[in-house]
Design brief:
Helix content: under 10%
Largest sheet: 2 strands, antiparallel
Shape: elongated
Length: 110
C-alpha cells in the first residue's frame, strides 16, 4: 500500500491487465493466456490460466466464439484451438471440435 494508506485495498494496481500479489513492490503485467482474479478491476492480486473453452487477452477471459473450440488451457487468441469439424456445430465455449450433435441433410420437427 502507498504510504499513509488507510485500507489494504488502497494500492491501485492498474487495470485488469496487471496484478499485484501480496508483497509486490510494483504491478506485474498479466502473462499471455492468463486472466487476473481477486480484488477489483484496479486491484487484482492474482493471475490464473485461461481454462478450456476460453481465451484470455489483456487479463480478461472470453469464451471461444461459436464455431470455434478450445480444449487447451492458456489460449490467447479468439481462434482458440481451431474451427469445428465440418458438419458439426460448436456453441460458445466449446471444448471439442465436434461441439454438439452432428448435422445431417434431413431433419424432422415434431
Amino acid at each position: 500500500c502507498p504510504e499513509a494508506s488507510t485500507r489494504k485495498e488502497a494500492f491501485h494496481c492498474g487495470g485488469v491487465d496487471f496484478f499485484c500479489p501480496k508483497g509486490a513492490e510494483a504491478p506485474i503485467r498479466v502473462a499471455n493466456g492468463f486472466y487476473t482474479t481477486e480484488g477489483t478491476a484496479s486491484t487484482r492480486s492474482n493471475q490464473e490460466w485461461c481454462p478450456a473453452g476460453h481465451y484470455c487477452v489483456g487479463g480478461i477471459k472470453y469464451a471461444c466464439p461459436a464455431g470455434r473450440w478450445g480444449d487447451s488451457r492458456g489460449l490467447s487468441t479468439r481462434k482458440c484451438d481451431g474451427a469445428c469439424r465440418p458438419g458439426s456445430f460448436c456453441p460458445e465455449a466449446s471444448t471439442s471440435s465436434s461441439g454438439g450433435p452432428q448435422l445431417t441433410g434431413s431433419s424432422s420437427y415434431g
